[in-house]
Amino acid sequence: MANYQAFSASVQGAAHVKKNIVMQDASGKFENEKVKLIAVSDGHGDSSCFRSDRGSRLIVEVGIEELKAFADEMDGKGETGGLQRSHGAHPERTGQAQNGRVTSRLPGNGNFPR
Hints:
Shape: flat
Number of strands: 2
Low-confidence stretches: 79-87
């Protein structure tokens, strides 16, 4: 693999600091000897979406897991370069995984308070 470094950073913007609004963006990374992955999520940015920060972190977590699973599938099939030719990690599976995580954290389950 080429000599790349994976990194991610999320920084609260000046307007959010001034208005005391939580940062709603998230990013994450994963790397090993075979693959380097990043995921980013832009929060909604509206005060009525008071869980946007949690949603952004959640989709980054799910995204990294799904990208890792996709990388494992490509590696298991012996498709060298398959990741470079990828058209993304299975969107349907990623959406299902995200929905499951969100549902498990809804107020009725006591895990996702305001």
